């Protein structure tokens, strides 16, 4: 494995943190790779084109949603993932969850990452939630490029019908046998991670997952805050409700950035983190490259670290 300079810094950080991280050891934890921002943005461009070709959105029950599933699935199949499309019904239309398993690892210890792939009907949904969908897709592709052999089993999910009330993720959890639920050692959720006036919010749920993301941001010297913009408003909630440890990242929706937040993170106080939240202007222009890049690297860092990648 070729180590870039940032990767070496990451390796050193992983080593320093090994003493406090139960699943990491200096001897076996490899540095997570940098996730190429250009690749993440290329996925957003494709999702934008899919919306444009399908009536301007990628909403549940519309052609743009299934086209989005097929785009992501094609990339994962070509990269060696085992993919499954799970169908459900919501509001009289068929919905789809896409599940991708990376072969290998301990099937009794699953590290799962998920993002909702549906948009609202108002627009293309590029920050909400092309951003999380593209970041976990590119992380999965990085797993394949590395031919990663983690201790734990890796699973990725793209949820349908989140915007109708977490329908797809709830369907998945409700249809997962109790024994399978117990094998999920952690569920990581990424919904809105490239907000144009970003904050850096970490979910305050499972302490190990929370600390993993905090460690990543501490390494960048960037302060984080606890995510409070509506606890339970995304796909981690059904997992949390059945006792699965959860965590995640969020860069803000329609809450307003305070002066103190603008002081520490830059951007504009008195303005929403995402003023195009659930609007037609949630396009490829509605993205902070800086936030998307940092959060994509944080996704990979957490997946590598929590799975005991070696
Ligand atoms: N899930 C919401 C949506 O898709 C956005 C959102 C609001 C959110 N508050 C959150 C996402 C807190 C994660 C965490 O419209
Ligand atoms: Zn969302």
TrEMBL record:
Gene3D superfamilies named among the record's database cross-references: Zn peptidases (3.40.630.10)
Signal peptide: 1-26
GO cellular component, one term: extracellular region
Main location: secreted
InterPro entries in the record: M28_fam, M28_SGAP-like, Peptidase_M28
Cell compartment(s), UniProt: Secreted
Peptidase M28 domain boundaries: 97-302
Record-level GO BP terms: proteolysis
Domain of life: Bacteria
SUPFAM superfamilies according to UniProt: Zn-dependent exopeptidases
Cofactor field: Zn(2+)
Recorded family membership: Belongs to the peptidase M28 family. M28A subfamily.
Protein name listed in UniProt: Peptidase M28
The organism's taxonomic lineage, starting at the top: Bacteria, Bacillati, Actinomycetota, Actinomycetes, Kitasatosporales
């Amino acid at each position: 494995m070729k180590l870039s300079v940032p990767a070496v810094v990451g390796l050193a950080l992983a080593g320093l943190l090994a003493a406090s991280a139960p699943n990491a050891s200096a001897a076996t934890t490899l540095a997570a790779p940098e996730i190429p921002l250009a690749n993440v943005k290329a996925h957003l461009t494709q999702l934008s084109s899919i919306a444009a070709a399908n009536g301007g959105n990628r909403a549940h029950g519309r052609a743009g949603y299934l086209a989005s599933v097929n785009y992501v699935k094609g990339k994962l199949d070509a990269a060696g993932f085992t993919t499954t499309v799970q169908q459900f019904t919501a509001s009289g239309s068929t919905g789809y969850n896409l599940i991708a398993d990376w072969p290998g690892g301990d099937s009794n210890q699953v590290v799962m990452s998920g993002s909702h792939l549906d948009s609202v009907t108002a627009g293309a949904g590029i920050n909400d939630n092309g951003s999380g969908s593209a970041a976990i897709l590119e992380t999965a592709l990085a797993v394949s490029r590395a031919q990663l052999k983690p201790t734990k089993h890796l699973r990725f999910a793209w949820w349908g019908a989140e915007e109708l009330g977490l329908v797809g993720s709830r369907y998945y959890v409700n249809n997962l046998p109790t024994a399978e639920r117990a094998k999920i050692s952690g569920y990581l959720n990424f919904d809105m991670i490239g907000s144009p006036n970003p904050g850096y919010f970490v979910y305050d749920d499972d302490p190990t997952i929370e600390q993993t993301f905090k460690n990543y941001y501490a390494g960048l010297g960037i302060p984080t805050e606890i995510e409070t913009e509506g606890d339970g408003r995304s796909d981690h909630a059904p997992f949390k409700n059945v006792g699965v440890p959860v965590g995640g990242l969020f860069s803000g929706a329609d809450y307003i950035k305070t002066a103190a937040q603008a002081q520490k993170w830059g951007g504009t106080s008195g303005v929403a983190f995402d003023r195009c939240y659930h609007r037609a202007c949630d396009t490829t222009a509605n993205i902070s490259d800086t936030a998307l890049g940092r959060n994509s690297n944080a996704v990979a860092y957490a997946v590598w670290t929590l799975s005991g990648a070696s």
